[in-house]
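pinging the channel bc i need a second pair of eyes. not urgent but kinda urgent?? the chain im working w is below, pasted from the shared doc
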Amino acid sequence: MPGKIIIFSIVFFLSVKLCFSGSDNTGKKDDLKISFGYAQTIVHFNNSSLVKLELELFINKNLSVDYTLSGNFSQKNTFIHAPLGFVAGLALLSETRETDFSSYDYLILLLMIIPEGVNYYIPMNDNINLVSYINPLGYDYFADDYSISSSLGAKLELLPLDNFSINPYAGLKLFYSHNSASFGFETGLLVSIIF
């Protein structure tokens, strides 16, 4: 089983890169952005400080797809966020016990590469971009419960160096199916490396 997960991970990242490598990036030399940072979620029953990892693949110079993992692991305020397709793919993958790949396994891989959302970059000047985002395919686990979620908001991308950016952001988080909450807020700061 560990070998299968490693193979799936390698194929996942190669597939995502190949899907978008043929796109029109006229005037854009950067295709990949990896961000690390801190986020604060504010939901009436669970306020959490999170560590966040975000991967963006650019389709063109203004549009990127988004994959976000974040979480904390405190005993009182556990909060974990991941893309819905990735979680669903892992759940289905854990149920398969076969050693050979079948067409079902390839469908699982396809499910895992579905992005969580999109970002749209609006240039303000050479060193500042306003980025609006919508992520309708999120999955949140919190306080011994879970919900499919969506988020929308804005980031400010500050570019002090060519391949480095600082991104403060704020947004609204919507929960599709949670008993105690329908929405919350998230703010944070990301530091990004652009490849």
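so The longest helix spans residues 2-21. and The first strand starts at residue 32 and ends at 43. — does that match what u expected or am i reading it wrong
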